[in-house]
Design goal:
Blueprint: E1 10-14, H1 23-36, E2 39-42, E3 48-55, E4 58-65, E5 68-71, E6 81-89, E7 92-96, E8 99-103, E9 107-112, E10 117-121, E11 126-134, H2 135-138, H3 145-148, E12 153-154, H4 158-172, H5 179-197, H6 201-209, H7 211-226, H8 235-241, H9 246-255, H10 260-276, H11 286-292, H12 298-309, H13 313-322
Antiparallel strand pairs: 1-3, 2-5, 3-4, 4-11, 5-10, 6-9, 6-11, 7-8, 7-10, 9-12
């Protein structure tokens, strides 16, 4: 990615947003020459839907694409970046420095921005995560950057999995990141990328205390939110799903200024609040909603709900009925 985007720009690029006759040229100009410094040639009717984001020293593009030939000519070479491509679905063939590597589902590959390269996205297109790192910022964190280039990296476990999950959470935020959050997010991404590619000892120690912890906490929170903080979800259950100890999970929440119990309680109350305000649940009793949200004691539910929302469950339901 280039500095012309600024340090916190974010936008969606989808071919459906443009007239069919202009789709290829707009994609080539916006994503290819401005964002990734490559040229694009569609090998099928152009279909792209991606979110592009620029953070300090870092460019992110995630989404899906139809079949393309992506190549970098000498005029487009940028000496200050490393480019990482992760294939989430589908595949690609990368040709770089006289080598050719296939990047299929569950793999990622790193290339240098100082070389002419070629990327053929496989028939049917694919879903991807594309990252562009400042060479100046990433190189000191990696023991031997050259050893990582054109080497397939697994994405289903370890630091690379944490990196991709963290990228997904950043993209879901949309345009709401503050300047401070942008700098913190970029630091975490560099930490995780360095661990995934072979961090130096000092960088690894910093990353494990910063990037990895943040990424793990985000993943655990997302897991709890997906389950609505259900009463049957214990610390042991959460820890086991993420391959961690329950003690470590509790420490992650403590480092965030809260506790696992409080976070799960907040999610249960939020679930009850959503249901009480949803007309589809208007015929259900408050007791039934409280039970489904994970509360077995109605009196306790009422007290906790009032402390959290400064209103009773009946107040929330009555307000929803007026709209």
């Amino acid at each position: 990615m280039t500095a012309t985007m600024g340090t916190s720009a974010s936008f969606r690029l989808a071919t459906e947003m443009f007239p069919e006759r202009d789709r290829v040229e707009i994609t080539r100009e916006v994503y290819g020459r401005t964002v990734l410094r490559v040229d694009l040639d569609p090998l099928a009717p152009a279909q792209i839907d991606m979110r592009v984001r620029a953070l300090p020293g870092l460019g992110i593009a995630t989404g899906s694409s139809s079949e393309f030939r992506v190549h970098r000519t000498s005029s487009l070479i940028d000496n200050d970046d490393f480019v990482l491509l992760a294939a989430l679905d589908g595949g690609s063939v990368m040709k770089h420095r006289g080598r050719e590597e296939a990047v299929g589902n569950g793999q990622a590959l790193m290339m240098s921005g100082e070389e002419v390269g070629l990327n053929l996205i496989g028939a049917g297109g694919f879903r991807f995560v594309n990252l562009s790192f400042s060479r100046k910022q990433l190189s000191p964190l990696i023991g031997d950057p050259a050893a990582v280039l054109m080497r397939p990296l697994p994405t289903q476990s370890g630091a690379m999995r944490l990196l991709l999950d963290y990228i997904s959470s950043i993209q879901e935020v949309g345009d709401e990141l503050t300047a401070e959050a942008c700098h913190l997010a970029a630091a975490h991404v560099f930490d995780l990328a360095a661990l995934a590619m072979g961090a130096t000892r000092d960088a690894a120690q910093i990353a494990r205390g910063r990037g990895v912890s943040v990424a793990r906490l985000r993943a655990i929170k997302a897991d709890i939110v997906a389950h609505g903080g259900h009463v049957d979800l214990s610390a042991q259950d959460v820890a086991a799903r993420h391959g961690l100890s329950a003690r470590y999970v509790r420490k992650l929440f403590e480092s965030d200024g809260t506790s696992l119990i409080d976070f799960m309680m907040t999610q249960r109350l939020a679930r009850a609040h959503r249901m009480l305000g949803d007309p589809r649940h208007a015929g259900r009793s408050i007791t039934a909603i409280a039970y489904e949200a994970g509360f077995n004691d109605l009196s306790y539910f009422n007290r906790a709900f009032r402390r959290r929302y400064d209103a009773t469950p009946s107040d929330v339901r009555a307000a929803a009925c007026k709209h």
